[in-house]
Automatic annotation (TrEMBL):
InterPro entries: SAM-dependent_MTases_sf (IPR029063), SAM_O-MeTrfase (IPR002935). CDD domains: AdoMet_MTases. Pfam families: Methyltransf_3. GO terms for molecular function: O-methyltransferase activity. This is O-methyltransferase. The keyword Signal does not apply. One of its GO terms (biological process) is methylation. Keywords: Methyltransferase, S-adenosyl-L-methionine, Transferase.
Length: 197
């Protein structure tokens, strides 16, 4: 599977770049993470031995493949949520092609609704790469579903710093979280949840 998965990742990188050059409407753009961001996510999942991973914003599943490959190595699973039917269909096909469908649960729903019905401390790692204007409104639920000692990773923290500023401020002001801005790809904001109540 390793060689085939690497070939599929490379194919999706080309597809995403070509698609996003040709398509102006945001709902039809893939807006995939960069390869070095995928590598970072893989390392973080493995380093934490994360077994319960949540991704908000599947797109065509490129980032999910990085998370799922690592989660398989830890004996874990990835739950990924995507609202757009077109992208969810692309992602489902890519998960099958990658041979990773058995460790991925694709939820076709609004992320806010998914978060509200999720149990406390349900996830070890949450990767947030979705509608940035929603993040502040999701914060209480994101904070709740992440286990103590869990990690939140937020994409586009440098490329869209102004848009992300209100959410980044919320994270920095929350004394339960320790944050770091990592200049990989489009910028990753990392926040570890403390173990105090």
């Amino acid at each position: 599977m390793g060689h085939n998965l690497e070939a599929l990742k490379a194919e999706l990188e080309r597809f995403g770049a070509d698609n996003d050059r040709a398509v102006a409407e945001r709902p039809r753009r893939m807006l995939n993470i960069t390869r070095d961001t995928g590598e970072l996510l893989s390392v973080l999942v493995r380093a934490m031995a994360a077994r319960r991973v949540l991704e908000i914003g599947t797109s065509n599943g490129y980032s999910t493949l990085w998370l799922a490959e690592a989660a398989r190595a830890t004996g874990g699973r990835v739950t990924t949520v995507e609202y757009a039917p077109y992208k969810a269909e692309l992602a489902a096909r890519n998960f099958e092609r990658a041979g990773l469908s058995d460790v991925i649960t694709l939820v076709r729903d609004d992320a806010g609704a998914l978060l509200r019905r999720t149990a406390d401390a349900a996830f070890d790692l949450v990767f947030l790469d979705s509608e940035r204007g929603e993040y502040v409104g999701w914060w209480a639920e994101l904070r709740r579903v992440l286990r103590p000692g869990g990690l939140l990773v937020v994409d586009n923290a440098v490329s869209h710093a102004q848009e992300m500023a209100p959410f980044a401020a919320l994270l920095r002001e929350d004394t339960l979280f320790t944050t770091s801005l990592v200049p990989v790809g489009n910028g990753e904001l990392l926040a570890v949840k403390g173990t105090a109540a």
